[in-house]
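Known limitations

Files may contain more than one protein. Parsers should not assume a single record per file. Below, a two-record file is shown to illustrate correct handling: read the sequence, read the token line, then continue until end of file.
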Amino acid sequence: MESYDVVIVGAGISGVSAAVHLQKFCPKKTFKILEARESVGGTWDLFRYPGIRSDSDMHTLGFDFKPWKEAKSIADGPSILKYVNETVDEYGLRGAIQFGQRVKRAEWDSGYGLWSIETENPLHEKSQFSCSMLFMCGGYYDYESPHDAAFQNTEAFSGEIVHPQFWPQNLEYKGKKVVVIGSGATAMTLAPAMADSGAKVTMVQRSPTYVASRPDEDKFANFLRKVLPESWAYAITRFKNTRYQAYLYQKSRVSPGILKKILLDSVRNHLGKEMTDKHFTPSYNPWDQRLCLIPNADLFTVIKRGDLDLRTEGIDSFVEDGLKLISGEILPADIIVTATGLKLKVLSGVKFVVDEKEIDLARSYTYKGMMFSSIPNLIQTFGYINASWTLRADLTSEYACRLLNHMDKVGADFVTPTLSEEDMVPESRDWIEDFPSGYMKRSMHLFPRQGPGPWQNTQDFSRDKKMVRRSAITDRAMIFSNRTLSKNSA
């Protein structure tokens, strides 16, 4: 059995961040990255649909330790994947990654102070690893199966049904009639890209979504890069953008009507009042669900050009030659794309056992959004739903290194976040609060809970930054312990 100080699960943005931080701040620690797929990049390697891009700027989606150097701040998927692979090679991480190893089970033994990890490769062959600290960086949705919207009569459709998560490599859609079902970021990326490539696209959204248009280049950032050292320009732009993201989100909580007017006025300037009222005016307030970013107003451009039609209406069923709406209208289609959302998966679907007791994560509480009650030496990266994922990934990596170094300093083998009597109050909240988006609501019952004090998942970058960098590692919840048996006999 291969043994390491730290095992990182996942070689996407979160896992790469974790590995680089370990190299920098815990240089004596050994680590291995276990990746279920055969390549680096996670989300950015999996998704290959037309137009795939970030809906966050790369000065915040990029790592804090590696400046984004491209002119476009709203980057396409291949550019982001290239950036992640560059990071892996610059920091010499490729040799630390073991591909094709899906973690199935992790068992903790307090006597030895070790996790025993069982993995499976694509041939269903099993391997064993052990580590002191397990760092889960596998993202938060199911890579194998997307959300099933349960459309009626799909088998009657004579054309091709495609889900963006499993985009066929050689799908030919130029000159064809395409119906895209969805109103989120994927649909609003995919639909204009296919229209620009010669498809006749109809986008069907069962309810409207707020959209915000902005240029894909950050002129301020590009100017700074000309007059300042690259690292300075990146840091300043990153600070500016994180503050702006926080300002917009807080504005949506305090004065939702003002932000709503700004967003809708922008759409009216592009498409007019009638189109805006019918297709871009949701029933909820901004940031009750995630905003969709439209770089360079590309969606509006293809609508005005006549290459993309929009319907905001319920779906009755699939029919032989297309999609039937509640109104009875049939939208003819050669291809129907079901961009209907993701299915979330808690901690990559790994089965956890602590001292021979199987853990039900839904009955645990999150510690600072990174650890879990009664589970020793387990850290998870879970990003922001209201800001860039990597902001939280980098902070979590920083915290993990601080924790490991503190444990070495005090001579502890493991640490267990533990609920005290003081915390045992009837305050229990969802892992993500005040965000009624469908993909979140469908899965919140599977996630750990929040409580008072340190038992929170704040989803607030400013608060998390203070907590990670300034607050003490020790508090009433963190119980530091030592193994009672020798590692060599494990």
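...continuing to the second record:
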Amino acid sequence: MSTLKYYYVYIVRCSDGSYYTGVTNNVQRRISEHEAGIDTKCYTYSRRPLELLYSEYYFDIRQAIDREKQIKRWSRKKKEALIAQNMDQLHEAAACKNETSHLLYKK
């Protein structure tokens, strides 16, 4: 009998107020590793303590990694909307507002 394996995408707030997004198969263990400062080259090393703000899970590691990469590209405002689970704010933050936006473009 096979057990399902979960992969988690998580967001932590660092002591400097920045956000770090990662992927793991065990959120609590990974946060403990960040807090312990195991890897001096890790983004979070000099930004401890950390606070876990958000996580979501996947059954497929590729989907989790793709999601992690997607969230890492997001603006702070968009990440905060996701953390707050405010879908209206998330969609608003995702809207393109530059001059070439299809919403503003006039023929």
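Parsers that stop after the first record will miss the second one. For reference, the second record is described as follows. DSSP finds four helices and three strands in the chain.
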